[in-house]
Amino acid sequence: MLIWPLTLEKLEPKTFLKRLQIVHWCFVVALLGSTIFVYRDSTGFRVGMSEVKDIFLFIVPLVALFGYFGSQLIFRNQLRHIALTESLDSKLKKYRTASLIKYSLLEVPSFLALYAFYTTDIALYFVIAICLIAYLFVQGPKKSRLINEMPLCLEEKELFDTLQT
């Protein structure tokens, strides 16, 4: 039986933040690589959509909106369930889970928008993908954001304040 290696160990603030940053960068780099491939392989941008009868015209913006707002809503909702009295290890695991869900909810609509652009060359889909990727990039884990978003006691905040990032 294969066990996910990140769930067995006790998490420390320094290694936690570095690992979450690496995972975040993997999400961003995968999307940027796909964007470059799709852009280089496209035949150009189509701007007009008066003659377009494309199912993506409705699906991509809706999925993008769900990804954007859903990532924020679900992330905040999951952080709300972290109690101040929990152990730091438990808080970090819940924060990691919430962050990975947030990143995934932004990545999936980005890939869908890139696929739609790849198959239709409609510029709207490319713009939606770029906006979602930019938002994902900005949502990267930072020490200050983690301290502000997660309920931490004074000793735990001091632990994070000593980190060099």
Helix and strand topology:
Blueprint: H1 13-41, H2 56-80, H3 88-120, H4 123-138, H5 143-149, H6 154-161
Helix pairs in contact: 1-3, 1-4, 2-3, 2-4, 3-4
Molecular structure report:
- This protein has helices at residues 13-41, 56-80, 88-120, 123-138, 143-149, 154-161.
- The longest helix has 33 residues, at 88-120.
- With 165 residues, it is mostly helical.
- The relative contact order is 0.18.
- The mean pLDDT is 87.
- The chain has one domain.
- The protein has six helices and no strands.
- Helix 3 runs antiparallel to helix 4 (123-138).
What is the distance, rounded to the nearest whole angstrom, between the alpha carbons of the first and last residues?
36 Å
Radius of gyration: 19 Å
User: Averaged pLDDT, please?
Assistant: 87
Shape: elongated
The helix/strand order is HHHHHH
Structural class: mainly alpha
Brief descriptors of the model:
elongated; mainly alpha; single chain; 165 residues; 0% strand; 6 helices
Summarize it.
With 165 residues, the protein is mainly alpha-helical.
